[in-house]
Amino acid sequence: MSTVAAHAHEEDHGHHHKETFMTKYIFSQDHKMIAKQYLITGLFMGIIGIAMSLLFRIQLAWPEQSFTIFEVLLGKWAPDGVMDPNVYLALVTIHGTIMVFFVLTAGLSGTFSNLLIPLQIGARDMASGLLNMISFWLFFLSSAIMVASLFVEAGPAAAGWTIYPPLSALPQAQPGSGLGMTLWLVSMAIFIASSLLGSLNYIVTVLNLRTKGMTMSRLPLTIWAFFVTAIIGVVSFPVLLSAALLLIMDRSFGTSFFLSDIFIQGEVLHYQGGSPVLYEHLFWFLGHPEVYIVLLPALGITSEIIATNARKPIFGYRAMVASILAIAFLSTIVWGHHMFISGMNPFLGSVFTFTTLLIAIPSAVKAFNYITTLWKGNLQLNPAMLFSIGLVSTFISGGLTGIILGDSTLDINVHDTYFVVAHFHLVMGISALYGLFAGVYHWFPKMFGKMMNKNLGYVHFWVTAVCAYGVFFPMHFIGMAGLPRRYYTNTAFPYFDDIADINVVISIFAFTAGAAQLVFLYNFINSIFYGKKAEENPWKSNTLEWTTPVEHMHGNWPGEIPHVHRWAYDYSKPGQEEDWVSQIVPLKEGEEELQH
Amino acid sequence: MTTLLILTVLVLIGISIWQISKMFELSQTDRNTTEIADDRDNNTQGKLMFAFLVFIYLLTLYSFYAWGDVLLPESASEHGTDYDNLLWISFALIFFVQTITQALLHYFAYKYRGEKGKKALFYADNDRLEAIWTIIPVITLAGLILYGLYTWTNIMQVEENDEALVVELYAQQFNWKARYAGNDGVLGDANVRFLQDFDGKNLVGIDATDPNGLDDVVVQELHLPVGREVIFKMRSQDVLHSAYMPHFRAQMNCVPGMITEFAFKPTVTTEEMRQNPDMVAKVKKINKIRSENSKELVANGEEALEPYIFDYVLLCNKICGASHYNMQMKIVVETPEEYNQWMAEQQTFAQVIQ
Known about the structure:
Chain A is an all-alpha fold. Chain A has helices spanning 2-11, 21-26, 31-61, 68-74, 85-121, 129-148, 179-208, 221-252, 276-310, 317-331, 346-358, 360-374, 383-400, 402-405, 408-414, 418-448, 454-480, 500-530, and strands spanning 263-264, 267-268.
């Protein structure tokens, strides 16, 4: 007994110092606390992002009508309660920015990479706790700046989340391109720094701190997904930083990287020789991998949850890892499919069509493997499992229309219409949100030591699932009708009068979906305080995080870090009594480790 | 109408609150304070999964039934026919895969819902199966890619020729102008630096020292002769815009500082499109909606909406500022005779600046 304690102490050096409130809850270097900080900040940003979408859904359903809620929330930007067109564009812009970066990148990947990487690979903490802490606080700072930009005199950035110049570069072009845009750029630059610090930490931790026996081929798929996501982030985020810096120079120091031959507000500007197309290349060099930065962690989370709750090994582990790698590689060479009609050489369009449609192959493999994992399982339909199955459903529905958008020819007529809005919301927005929810329901016991309420979880899932299709399925139709996105109202075109009804239907589904998220919030907060106390391994799961005590402690395991003897997916293995075998259980005599 | 909808929303929200509060009551029992599903939950949730499959199918069918008529009518340009073929082939494939995969996913979720004491099948791998579902997408996509690229090259290859009509589309916040090359068939040089010349009469910045520009014609309504190829040269004077002509399956961005191109041959005149049965039905439906809305307006002492007559439109499809939603130009496709007559009535640049 004493030797164990001594040994633990030796490995645990420095972890027994007394903690103050500040070091424990605010400037914590513990990955579990940082994960919670990411989650709560992400959820807070999510509330803002979703609330904004509900505001512009009111405008889209009942255009140019007066609403008290606009007067209350938007003040002078909604004279007589009618939303101003610039405000509409600002809402769309900030909704996109917040959801993509602050909720689905930082909130999803930041939370679960931090929580699970050390716990699932058997490490005491991240490679650098200090960098990890700095990463979170940079994220917090960038969130604060983004929120602050909502309150500047001329309004926040309003050039769309892609902030294409010259619209974003010239304050004369729209009010949002003044101070609001400057804050947007500063916030994003800090966000990128945060993301890079986080990603480097994840990569180093996965490569160096795996416990004995945790070979790469025994890593849970969650870790594979987080690891590869971090690599994509390190490769592509710096390019967005360079685009943002060049744009800042064009805006503030008179350079002409993206601007040329401009006449605006009765004045010829001095810019010569720059090209907005260059900005588009730089932006989408991050922008497209960003889709997978958002999606891969969600797919990793659901791989783990589906296997655990199906009580079956994930089907085709090697193929799942290979498809993550293939998607990651391809994601960096497809950015041009956002630019088929940008004016770039049509031959480039051909190349990007080719690489883009190739992504369908690893994606199809993933979808089929998920379905096969369900086959002949013993499905435990917990809320986390429902969200995981829901993810596969929206991933298929949304992914398939990618075949149309990825084809340069077909993109000509659906580019920037509501068809695109429907596609990417289903395949990356809703899918990644489902991944986030699934993760929260599944690892809530690990994060907070309490169980959430399942009935509220079921209500949350079913209302959300029905509404997600209710919102985005009809959008395909209005896109195929030729309706452009980012239109403040469609009343300027009588030709679109017959889709006004569809917009009302969509908005009603959207409000209902928004209400369902309140059920989640209630469940989340209520369960932290009043939830039933969790057991150590409520889901009878194989991975290492469920071998740690419910009460959080520095260093994660009280004694020695357990060694790993098998892969993470020995569920319902023949010859075993239980339908699960933890990774720390040594192979029995004569038992073969599956050479998956 | 609007009041009715708001009432519906309120009723729905009321019902949800009532249901949720009921949920809270139920959730107080011991069985429900945890998150772990038991046999009863698995049974209910499994069945709901199956019901959800039915929901997806019904939603799809209902959408086509209720909203199938909002889709764009048949293409009014030559390449548009190829475009539509490729589109519907892709859609057929998508619906086929969607129907089958969603069925498998949700049916398995229902069929294999958990039961205490049951054991799942330990089935970790099958190389042959995985090879099959890798190779099938490879072959299908190879076909789609080849067909797509063939069409793309055909559409995007713009070759200058004497037959074609050259038209410049000029974008600015928040309107469109079109410039015709005139008798010489060559557009004069232009730059935003010239916009302020001639007291602002030089609407698209034509270089007055270039003789090619003197016979150019600048208009605010786009007229195209049917059956003749049109080569569009796009310019923008301020921010990015996108010239989107959905009925012709045509779109290209307008980029400040560069000239972009797109070409197509219109095949259906405005008059013919108005006679198209689908279009007749659509316009009728739109006018019914408009007269409904007018009743409300008139009741409030405002003017009634004008009845709608179909016209092709050019829309801006790249976010460009406050009035992005109303940046449009009417397109008229007419017989060559009508077109020539219209063109003869227009003033050339030389006449405008005199």
